């Protein structure tokens, strides 16, 4: 019971932190709007004519993936804050296993990322995405699946760093390539063969691809069969959870 209570407490703390920081909620809406409306409209006027579908419809899953990526990995900074303010030491000496601490942090940060992803998903209605109940019931579990692995990356990096500055540098170094090399902004299928492999080793590529398959339906052909795409994401999650759990056992 103490393990479950520890997980619940850490989860609740992260959610309360998000709800109290209104600026984060506002920025989670404004930035995707800029991407979808300004960038989507501008680039869509040329790209859309070549692909045969509306570019904003193509871009929409990519921006959901971007929101999940940036939020999930950035929120690893909470571990650095906890270290600097001494809260992490108090957690580590509590009668709760390191695995439960990691799971609690992962669920808390993951919930924050998912909430912001859902906000962005709802924005699709205003740019003409035909959002339905069926689509929503498929998209939300997908977002959860994509978020788990991304959250773990942020927590793993934060577990081995003690400086906010270093964490910011590493995050920028990891986030931007993962986003630009995920197919969020342009189709991977049109790239040269040698460049495609750079995208294929990026786990976010499969997350965006799966989201695009759900939101665009028959208009989109996934890189792999859909079930294999889901299997790749799930395998990535399992590996990241194992690595993250081990990294937290080494946290001091």
TrEMBL record:
InterPro entries: ABC2_TM, ABC2_TM_bact-type, ABC_2_transport, Daunbcin-R_ABC-transpt, Nod_factor_ABC_transporter. One of its GO terms (molecular function) is ABC-type transporter activity. It is found in: Membrane. It is a multi-pass membrane protein. It holds the Pfam family ABC2_membrane. Residues 23-251 form the ABC transmembrane type-2 domain. The keyword Transmembrane applies. The chain crosses the membrane at residues 25-46, 58-81, 114-133, 139-161, 173-195, 226-248. GO terms for cellular component: ATP-binding cassette (ABC) transporter complex. Keywords: Membrane, Transmembrane, Transmembrane helix. This is ABC transporter permease protein. It comes from Methanocella paludicola (strain DSM 17711 / JCM 13418 / NBRC 101707 / SANAE).
């Amino acid at each position: 019971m103490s393990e479950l209570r520890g997980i619940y407490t850490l989860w609740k703390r992260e959610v309360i932190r998000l709800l109290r920081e209104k600026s984060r909620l506002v920025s989670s809406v404004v930035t995707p709007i800029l991407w979808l409306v300004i960038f989507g409209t501008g680039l869509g006027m040329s790209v859309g004519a070549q692909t045969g579908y509306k570019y904003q419809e193509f871009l929409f899953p990519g921006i959901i993936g971007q929101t999940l990526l940036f939020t999930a990995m950035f929120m690893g900074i909470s571990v650095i804050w906890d270290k600097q303010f001494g809260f992490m030491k108090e957690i580590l000496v509590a009668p709760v296993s390191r695995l439960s601490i990691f799971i609690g942090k992962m669920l808390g940060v993951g919930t924050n990322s998912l909430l912001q992803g859902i906000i962005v998903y709802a924005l699709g209605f205003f740019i003409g995405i035909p959002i339905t109940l069926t689509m929503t019931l498929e998209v939300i579990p997908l977002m959860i699946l994509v978020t788990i692995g991304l959250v773990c990356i942020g927590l793993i990096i934060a577990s081995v760093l003690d400086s906010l500055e270093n964490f910011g540098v590493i995050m920028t170094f990891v986030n931007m390539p993962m986003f630009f090399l995920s197919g969020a902004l342009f189709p991977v299928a049109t790239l040269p063969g040698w460049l495609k492999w750079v995208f294929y080793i990026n786990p976010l590529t499969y997350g965006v691809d799966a989201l695009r398959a759900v939101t665009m339906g028959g208009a989109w052909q996934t890189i792999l069969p859909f079930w294999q795409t889901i299997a790749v994401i799930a395998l990535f999650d399992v590996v990241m959870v194992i690595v993250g759990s081990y990294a937290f056992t080494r946290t001091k």
